[in-house]
Amino acid sequence: MSRPLPQKRATVHDIAAAVGMSRGTVSRVLNGGYVSAEARAAIEAAMTDLGYVPNNAARALKMRRSQAVAFVAHEPHSLFLDDPNIGSIMLGANAALSLADHQMVSLVVESARDNERVARYLSGGFVDGAIVVSARTNDPIIKVISDLALPAAFIGHPPDLAQHIPFVGIDNVGSAVAITEHLVSTGRRRIGMIAAALDRDSGIDRLNGFRDALGPLFDEELIADVPHYDYGSGVKGMRDLLEREPGIDGVFAASDAIAAGALEALREAGRSVPGDVGLVGFDDSTWAVRCQPQLTTVHQPAKELGSCAAQVVLRQLSGETVETTRQLLPTPLVLRDSA
Amino acid sequence: MSRPLPQKRATVHDIAAAVGMSRGTVSRVLNGGYVSAEARAAIEAAMTDLGYVPNNAARALKMRRSQAVAFVAHEPHSLFLDDPNIGSIMLGANAALSLADHQMVSLVVESARDNERVARYLSGGFVDGAIVVSARTNDPIIKVISDLALPAAFIGHPPDLAQHIPFVGIDNVGSAVAITEHLVSTGRRRIGMIAAALDRDSGIDRLNGFRDALGPLFDEELIADVPHYDYGSGVKGMRDLLEREPGIDGVFAASDAIAAGALEALREAGRSVPGDVGLVGFDDSTWAVRCQPQLTTVHQPAKELGSCAAQVVLRQLSGETVETTRQLLPTPLVLRDSA
DNA sequence: TACGGATGTGTGAACGTGCACACAGTAGGA
DNA sequence: TCCTACTGTGTGCACGTTCACACATCCGTA
């Protein structure tokens, strides 16, 4: 079980000794300060010569900063496969952190074991802050962040038990209202919804927005309830709706993937889109432009969500007090061919 | 620019002082050793009381081990969006590392800036090893890993300049041969290929396998060369092939996404699949079962690639010398409806 | 000449941890 | 009685870094 120690690497002492100076001067070359041109040149030469790389662990220990920010993704299994947004959120966050010369490290939480280990990791000083995507309510990670006052930002699921932790998201209710009103404005009257993930607030909010926007046109019978935001759920949900109400002329799918599945079911049933049925999605993911016809949908600013959350964490790191604890990003409607 | 130091946290000293014992005893309850039952109880009580969490940075500095392994993903923009495999590879790696109580940290490389920062990160002692996905030939990260003798494993793209670094992948040539032979066995004679990513070895190998398998049936005219493994490339490539050879009756698409695009182009052109044209893909991704008809394809063992690479790194970490430096995982054919 | 400031360099301490070692007490066997 | 083995605890040092401080030198000016 005992492991061999890794290869010994050059330290500030080694290069100081190599050029006959003290470690202080070497440190000054690295971090700024008064150093003569000759000394600097000699030290830099020795550094490349001995292949010196500063030890992050030692630096983090002394400085109490690691220049790293965690990106914690929950249940990525479904996220990676069904929701193309998680990748864009990551890239947005990475870009923003990169500009501030911070390293983004993504941590995947799939099991209880992962959860505990990630919580330990977050509290151990390897990261200065965290961006947390779609955590569940009673997540131990929320507790750790709250207890340690770790600079953090949540995306996609506000942490109800720790109201002081900043949150960045979209207005699911408002977006659902807007896209539903679009359906109505195109003359549809028997409008249904394929509602998904009603155990998450994103799913609930989209359904609520749909109900609000429809008002008297709303019919409980025209809600198909499916578990996930994926293609298969879309196929099933649409078949369900068609069976219940053959005269349906408008459908709001809770995601683009669902809409793509619905499109397939409509094709099976011989219905044309947008001729017979107007169909709208949610996300503006790659699904939206792959479909035939292309989807009218709600643009989800995934990249911006990521970079915005990163900014929030970086601001906390630089000592600013973050005032706006809940921030909602705009979600423009994207009008294409499906409705 | 100067930042406030994070909140002071309890250390071994603090809890030792709290119970009137020495730090050594505290260390022993953490890491094992002779401790009396009363002492252990008192110390554990003080730990939860003061909210003690061990400092990873200090531990890593002292132990020269961080219990963390990096997962480096290159150009994730295209990977996350077009290739659903990267997510599965990550999850496979995470599961294997998790079992060995190691933390997987994913690092995204998108820009030259990222590249440099990640290289620094890898060499700084925050991770004990690295899993690298699809690195390019002259990648500075390869150099760092090689120079520091960092335990590592490559996936998807063997590091040509550092032959001693272990590699886990699939036999692209053999897989392409197998799936092409399947096409031939179903009676197709005018068989084309939509070849993609011919700047990567995966793309080149798949084309070579196709050529080898076809033998005298091979026709250079029936190769459509597209840049990426994505849907749009598939549409374009298939239109191209149809224009060049209207009598084409078999197509090998270099990926499932490409095959899905090809399916769309074939539908446009009024060709039925598999009636008029036999179509096969590569990857066995979610695309394969979404298509109508479902795709016959090559199963890419994404999860296994990840876990296998993780095992290789873990073995190096435990001091074993890794003998098999190049390891290819089996890629069974998945026969569905498209050919 | 003396003095203050700017420039350049060395030294000691500290960050929080784990481990080797030292030490004390007890028990058992020669 | 002494020696050894085992249990339990305390102490010093090292990991590699940064920073405050001390010290040294040089220059310009009063």
What does this structure look like?
- The structure is a homodimer of 339-residue chains.
- Chain A is built from 14 helices and 12 strands.
- In chain A, β3 (129-133), α8 (140-148) and β4 form a beta-alpha-beta unit.
- By secondary structure, chain A is α/β, with parallel strands linked by helices.
- The first copy, chain A, has 3 domains: 12-54, no CATH class; 68-170 and 303-330, 3-Layer(aba) Sandwich (Rossmann fold), CATH 3.40.50.2300; 172-298, 3-Layer(aba) Sandwich (Rossmann fold).
- A 6-stranded parallel sheet of chain A has the order 2-1-3-4-5-11, with helices on both faces. A 4-stranded parallel sheet of chain A has the order 7-6-8-9, with helices on both faces.
- In chain A, α1 packs across α3 (37-50), α6 packs parallel to α14 (302-317) and α11 packs across α12 (256-268).
Structural class of chain A: alpha/beta
Instruction: Give a quick account of the main beta sheet of chain A: strands, pairing sense, barrel closure.
Output: 6 strands, parallel
Uncertain runs of chain A are none
Overall strand count of chain A? 12
Tally of helical segments of chain A? 14
Give the overall form of chain A. Answer: elongated
Whole-angstrom Rg of chain A: 26 Å
Topology of chain A as a string of helices (H) and strands (E): HHHHEHHEHEHEEHEHEHEHEHEHEE
Q: Key terms for this structure?
A:
Rossmann fold; 339 residues; 14 helices; six-stranded parallel β-sheet; four-stranded parallel β-sheet; 12 strands; homodimer; alpha/beta; DNA-binding
